[in-house]
Specification:
Helix 1 crosses helix 8. It contains eight helices and seven strands, in the order E-H-E-H-E-E-H-E-H-H-E-H-H-E-H. Strand 3 and strand 4 form a beta hairpin. The protein is α/β, with parallel strands linked by helices. It is globular. It is about 45% helix and about 15% strand. The strands form two sheets. It has a five-stranded parallel β-sheet with strand order 2-5-1-6-7, with helices on both faces. The chain has a two-stranded antiparallel sheet with strand order 3-4.
């Protein structure tokens, strides 16, 4: 079992656009850690708790907002942002803190950066309201490292084309905008002292996994 210099095993986040490979790499890391004898858990956001389940239904348009003029539309940006923040606190209390306290390394497939990027959009333009999203997430536990899988819109869309269904963020125009924002947000978080590790998501899956595991071994 690896001995970490921290007082507890690290809290690790894997971030990137939909299709960048965050879920694949999170699962590979969990399997490798378990084979190495390191107790670990894999979790995700939205979580599998009651708020997270509702969020997933909203993102897939199974839960929609009735419109005054008739018909339905997606849940509003600010409502989603508040729900993600609530789900995150529930996630931390129900899964993350207990696992860390029990000596388990925690891997989260997405975390606060996703809220900044996906819910920070003011009006579908380049205008962003990061400060408000940061405020409602200010009580979130800061991860020990965030792996950012950098991927182009074209790469992500080519992978998403293999899925049966996309969520409300998975269109070419939106993803191109989100790609630019990821770069901005990761620079911002790094400037605030968070440990951000940028990795090329177009690299072979196993090579990318080896880079992530090698970094974890240094913590």
């Amino acid at each position: 079992m690896h001995s970490f210099p921290l007082a507890r095993p690290p809290f690790v986040v894997v971030e990137g656009l939909d299709g960048a490979g965050t879920t694949t790499q999170s699962r590979l890391l969990l399997g490798r850690l378990e084979r190495e004898g390191q107790p670990a858990i894999l979790t995700r956001e939205p979580s599998d708790g009651p708020i997270g389940v509702l969020i997933r239904q909203m993102l897939s348009m199974r839960v929609v907002l009735p419109l005054a003029e008739g018909g339905v539309g997606p849940i509003g940006r600010e409502t989603l942002a508040l729900m993600f923040a609530a789900d995150r606190l529930d996630h931390i209390d129900a899964e993350i803190r207990p696992a860390l306290a029990a000596g388990r390394l925690v891997i989260s497939d997405r975390y606060v950066p996703s809220s900044l990027i996906y819910q920070g959009d003011v009006d579908g333009s380049e205008a962003m309201d990061y400060s408000w999203v940061q405020t409602i997430n200010e009580r979130a536990l800061v991860p020990d490292v965030t792996f950012f899988l950098e991927a182009s819109t074209e790469l992500c869309l080519s992978r998403l084309d293999q899925r049966a269904r996309r969520d409300i963020f998975e269109t070419r125009e939106k993803m191109a905008r989100l790609e630019r924002r990821y770069d901005e947000v990761m620079d911002m978080l790094a400037s605030e002292g968070q440990r951000i590790v940028r990795l090329d998501a177009s690299a072979p899956i196993e090579a990318l996994h080896e880079q992530i595991f090698a970094y974890i071994a240094t913590l």
